Amino acid sequence: MAASSxxxxxxxxxxxxAIFAASAAHTQEASAQGLIRDAEIEETLRLYETPLLEAAxxxxxxxxxxxxxxxxxxxxxxxxxxxxxxxxxxxxxENPNEIIGVLAHETGHIAGGHLARSREAxxxxxxxxxISIGLGVLAIAAGAPDAGAALIAGSQSFAMGSFVRHTxxxxxxxxxxxxxxxxxxxxxxxxxxxxxxxxxxxxxxRTRNVPPWMMTHPFSSDRVESLRLRVEQAxxxxxxxxxxxxxxxxxxxxxxxGFIQSQGQTLARYPLSDRSPYARYARAVAYYRVSDxxxxxxxxxxxxxxxxxxxxxxxxxxxxxxxxxxxxxxxxFHRRSLQLAPNSPLLQINLARALTAANGRDGAExxxxxxxxxxxxxxxxxxxxxxxAQARDLLGQEALAQLASAEQNFALGDYGSALSFAERAxxxxxxxxxDYQRANDIVTFAGNEMRDRANDRRNRxxxxxxx
Length: 467
Prior knowledge:
By secondary structure, the chain is mainly alpha-helical. It has helices at 3-13, 26-33, 39-55, 87-92, 96-111, 114-141, 145-184, 190-200, 204-207, 220-233, 243-260, 263-269, 277-289, 293-306, 311-322, 327-340, 345-359, 361-377, 382-394, 398-412, 415-428, 434-462; strands at residues 17-18, 35-36, 64-68, 75-78, 82-86.
C-alpha cells in the first residue's frame, strides 16, 4: 500500500465508528445502499434512543437517526452526531434490548467525541509515517537501499498500528459507556452481550489471522467478557423489555421483512397459520409489493378493525391505494394517519401528495400548507421541496415554484441546478421579501461552491504529471 493509499485508508476509517468489526468506509456503504424513510420505524428508533441520550447528557434534538438499506448487521456514527442503523440489524435482532444495546454503544461514540479525536489520532499516525518514508528515501540516496526499503515498508504498519490502538481503545470505551447508559435508563446490557455472542464471535476465527496492526476493534471474546463483568454488576441487570418496546420492535421487524424480503421468504417466516398482528402486518406488505391488493387489504382491514387508532395501519392503507392509482380513495386514510400522529413530516407529505394527485389545483393550497409544516421540521427534505414546487406550479406561482426547485436541488447538493432555479426565481420575486432573500442566498452560496469546485479541478489538473 502506497503512502497516499494508506492515508486514504485511515481517513475512510473515520467515516464511521461502528459496533461491528468488519467494516471501515461506512458512509460510502450507506450512500451505495441508500437511506430508507419510514415514519413508524424512525419513531421507534427515536423512542429507543432518547433515554440513552438523556443518560449521556446529550440533547436528543441534536442527534439524527438514519435507516440504511443494507442486509449487514451493523450500526455506526458519522458526520458528527448522526447514527446510521442497517436494516439487517433490525431484521436479525431477537429482541428490542439488542437494538437498544447497539444504539447505546453508538451513543458512547458520540458522547466521547470519538470522531473528532480519531482525526487527531490519524494526523499523529501520518506524521511519523511520512518522516520514516523520508528517512528511507535519504538512506537509499546515501547508498543503503536495503535499509531505506525497510524504513519505507515499515512506516505503513507503524502508522496503522498507532491508529488502531487508538480505535480499539475507543471501541472499548463505547462498550463500557453503553452499559452505563443502559443501566441509568433502567435497562439491562444483556442484549448487547447476546448480540456480540451471536453475531460477532462467530467471525472471530477469521480476525485471529488478521495482522494486529489492521485490527480497528478489540477481539469479540475480549469485548464480551469485559462487558459481562460490568453488566452483572449493574443495578438493572435483570430488567426486561417493556411491553411497548416489544410491540414496536415486532411491528418494525415485520414491516421491514415484508418490504425487503421476497413474498416466499415473508410467508415462510409469517405463515398463514400465524394470526398475530405482526404476521398479518408483514403479509399485508408482502402482498402489496406483488400487487395482490385483495389479500393485502384483507390483512390490513383486519388490523385496522382491531386497532383503528394505529396511524401506521392507516398510512399503509393510504399508500397501497395511492400507488395503485387511487389517490382520491387514499386521502381519508392519509388524513386519519396524520390526525393520529400529528406533526409527522412524512405523514404530512403523504397527504399533500394525495391531495394534489387527486384534486389538482383544488388540493394544492392545502398541500402547500402541509408541506411547509413538514419542511419546518426537515428543511433539507428534498422530496418535500419537490412536492412544493409541483403544488406551487399548479397554483400558477411560477417564481415560488422555481424557488422550491432551487431548494430541492440545493438539498441534494446539485448546486448547478440550484443556482439556475434560484436566479430565475429572484428575477420576478418581489424585492425586500424573505423569499427573494432566500433565492439570493442560494445564488451566492451555490455560485461560490461551483467556483470552488472548478478551482479544485483546475488545481488537480495542474498537478498532473506531464505525459
